[in-house]
Specification:
- The chain is globular and about 50 Å long.
- The protein has helices at residues 4-20, 33-51, 66-77, 101-110, 113-123, 126-133, 137-143, 145-167; strands at 84-87, 93-96.
- The termini are far apart.
- The protein has a two-stranded antiparallel ribbon with strand order 1-2.
- Helix content is 60%, strand content 5%.
- Helix 2 (33-51) crosses helix 8 (145-167).
- It is built from eight helices and two strands; from the N terminus they run αααββααααα.
- It has 177 residues and is mainly α.
């Protein structure tokens, strides 16, 4: 169990890692599907934070103060309590918020944040579930066939939406980090 004093720093580190993966913005032809969705998510979260009067965080860039860092984290990830929850096969609960900029970006990209949370959490934990159950990955994938199908459907939707967002958003970075 994660102690409450560790939640905010853990959320900030997770956010920094998430956003760090989005820092590069190669041209549309050079992006993988994952990079395309990440880049669109970055555009959406940046817009959301900016609309709230906040400066989007960047890797290596420090917040002006701890209070600013707290405001950005709350706006990006939402405020407790987490509204979405799923317990993994090994009993570990996974939770997410529905009120932050990241949640808003997921709703835009995937169309159904609650469904995306559920299927992506399951799909992203297939290997750990196989290890926990002492089962083959193939058997676990077969057990979660409906989640894999839903994941592919939502991911295709997100890729289409992401491509549209990136086509209509000027790249102010010049495609460089």
């Amino acid at each position: 169990m994660i102690h409450r004093p560790l939640l905010r720093p853990l959320a900030l580190v997770t956010g920094a890692l998430l956003l760090a993966g989005c820092a590069n913005r190669p041209s549309g032809r050079d992006r993988s599907p994952d990079d395309t969705v990440r880049a669109a998510q970055q555009v959406l979260t940046d817009r959301c934070l900016t609309e709230r009067g906040l400066t989007p965080p960047r890797p290596g860039q420090r917040a002006r103060s701890a209070a600013d860092e707290e405001r950005v984290a709350a706006a990006l990830f939402g405020r407790p309590p987490a509204e979405l929850s799923l317990t993994l096969a090994n009993g570990i609960p996974v939770r997410a918020h529905t009120d932050g900029c990241l949640a808003a970006a997921q709703r835009t990209l995937y169309g159904d944040q609650k469904r995306w949370f559920r299927v992506s959490t399951v799909v992203n934990n297939l290997k750990p579930e196989a290890a926990y159950r002492h089962s083959s990955l193939t058997a676990v994938r077969e057990r979660h066939r409906s989640e894999l199908t839903a994941w592919r459907h939502l991911r295709t939707h997100a890729l289409d939406v992401s491509a549209r967002i990136l086509r209509t958003t000027p790249d102010t970075t010049g495609g460089t980090p």
